[in-house]
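Lab notebook, bench 4. Still working through the backlog of constructs that have no structural model yet. Next entry is a single chain of 187 residues. Request: give me the structure tokens for it.
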Amino acid sequence: MVMMRGMVQEMNEVITKGRDFVGYEYKSVTAGRNSADLYMDSYPSFGWSLEGTSLPLGGISPVVMKFKRNRKIKNKAELTRLQRQFESQVAEVESLESSKKLGASIFAYTIGIIGSAFMAGSVFAFLGDMYILCAILAVPAFIGWVVPYFGFVRISKKKSEKVSPIIDSKYDEIYDVCEKANSLLAY
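Model written out:
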């Protein structure tokens, strides 16, 4: 047995001690809390390994994830193309998720503001000693404060029923892309 810089040679067989050099590329991904798990589960399909996350304090802030992968990964161009496809599909899902409540929120805020305007008129009528006008304006004011909640719930439920099948099909597309990418990785 002969020792040579990091290698052991026995009868025409070369065994390398240690590891070969591996160059990595790094990627930082910022995602909302709702889609962070999807990124953490899916990025390994594109050859990335999760190095760490930073979870900010508070419930609204996004999650920052750090990934790395071998720079000399096989099928890198195709994996990158599939990764871009994945990212655009996730953006579509996030957009569809937010659309569930957007129209309902606009409705609720608008009716609430109108109700508040009636309440302001009612207060001014009260201050002007016009009690009948005060009572007349107070009725639509209270209605304008109650209706937004029920309208929001109803509109968001209808939009959810309409958008949920589309979101499910987008998730199926996302999983298909991840499956294709995973099959390109050589283990």
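Notes after review: The first helix runs from residue 33 to 42. The beta strands are 2-4, 7-10, 13-16, 24-31, 49-54, 63-70. Flag for follow-up if needed.
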